[in-house]
Write a structure and sequence with these properties.
Length: 353
């Protein structure tokens, strides 16, 4: 019998709503964790550490922390804390280092946390899908149990870990009730986004044969753009790039032509400026995908429109809403090219060194 390609990846994208709900509810139960690691005003430096997809979600987590708590936070590749710590952080500051790892076994994040474990003014924590992992043993961790996956590429794990951490941040913010309500709405609507994301992604991939895809986003959406870029690259083995939306205009836009797909993840607070970039890319011949909270006259030009919802909510709470479309875009591109999304070339689920 011929093996069905991508069966695990397809199922795990579809299981995302349940994983988000469980991660949201688990974070609500861990309010003391949030108060200890996120709500301590004596902390001078909060770090979110990850590698690959985990680093990209760390970017979104750090942006949410800064926006909602009005305190500094930095996302770092784990390797920078491990190998060039003096260039990356200020070691003498009172610090919370939060490892981000689906498996909790990624060598770089585990070794990075171990490298600072003995510092008197540092505390370690984490977010993972495995409570008994090496990383979870190093520092008290939020756990997204339903985020655990068989596929190599991260889909529901990443979305649920983001929402779990955002819920913890919301719990200690000065607008806690409002932020939690936004996240609750996100979780409740994710089933519809999965269904619509599958439909739109399949149609977009079928529309043209793209030589390249570019993902654009700002702030919390930049981490999501980076992740969309990686998902496509991992699953389909095609070349793709990601940029800050307006940064793309400063030279990189020279690659755009009629064989390019440009996906713009629009933040409400920078909507006008980002949509101008999207229209410009369409003028150069690109197939333009716009993902925004709601359609309007200003988005009518888009070749594909992805509604992320949560009109009036914060951009940070909406960040995970675009993930189903991005994940399915990678999935259907892989199938079109004859690649198995479950078995990406040269990759393993856990990276060890």
């Amino acid at each position: 019998m011929k093996q069905v390609m991508g069966v695990h990846t397809y199922r795990e994208i579809a299981e995302q709503p349940q994983a988000l709900k469980e991660a949201y509810e688990e974070a609500l139960r861990r309010k003391e964790w949030a108060e200890s690691y996120l709500g301590d005003n004596a902390v001078q430096q909060t770090l979110f550490l990850g590698s690959g997809s985990s680093y990209y979600q760390a970017i979104t987590m750090a942006a949410t922390y800064r926006s909602w708590l009005k305190r500094p936070a930095t996302a770092l590749p784990s390797s920078e804390l491990l190998l060039i710590r003096g260039q990356a952080v200020l070691e003498h500051l009172n610090t919370v280092a939060i490892g981000v790892s689906r498996s909790g076994e990624s060598t770089e994040v585990v070794k990075a946390l171990e490298s600072v474990e003995g510092l008197d003014n540092w505390r370690l924590a984490g977010v993972t899908c495995y409570a008994d992992s090496s990383m979870a043993k190093l520092g008290d961790s939020l756990v997204s149990r339903l985020g655990a996956e068989k596929s190599t590429v991260m889909t529901k794990s990443l979305a649920s870990m983001i929402v779990g951490m955002q819920t913890a941040i919301a719990l200690v913010s000065d607008r806690s009730e409002e932020r939690l309500k936004e996240l609750e709405q996100l979780v409740q609507a994710q089933e519809a986004r999965v269904q619509e994301g599958e439909r739109l992604a399949a149609a977009t991939v079928a529309a043209r044969n793209f030589d390249r895809t570019v993902f654009l986003g700002m702030g919390a959406m930049f981490g999501i753009a980076e992740e969309g870029c990686l998902k496509l690259k991992e699953m389909s083995n095609t070349w793709t790039e990601s940029f800050g939306t307006l940064e793309f205009r400063h030279g990189p836009k020279s690659i755009v032509d009629q064989h390019t797909c440009v996906i713009v993840l629009v933040s409400d607070q920078s909507r006008d400026a980002e949509l101008k970039v999207a229209r410009e890319m369409q003028e150069y011949g690109a197939h333009v995908v716009v993902a925004a909270s709601a359609a309007g006259e200003d988005t009518a030009f888009a070749d594909t429109f992805v509604e992320t919802g949560l009109v009036g909510a914060s951009d940070e709470a909406r960040a995970a809403a675009a993930l189903p479309f991005l994940q399915y875009y990678g999935y259907f591109t892989a199938l079109k090219r004859g690649n198995n999304p479950d078995e990406p070339r040269n990759l393993t689920q856990v990276v060890l060194i």
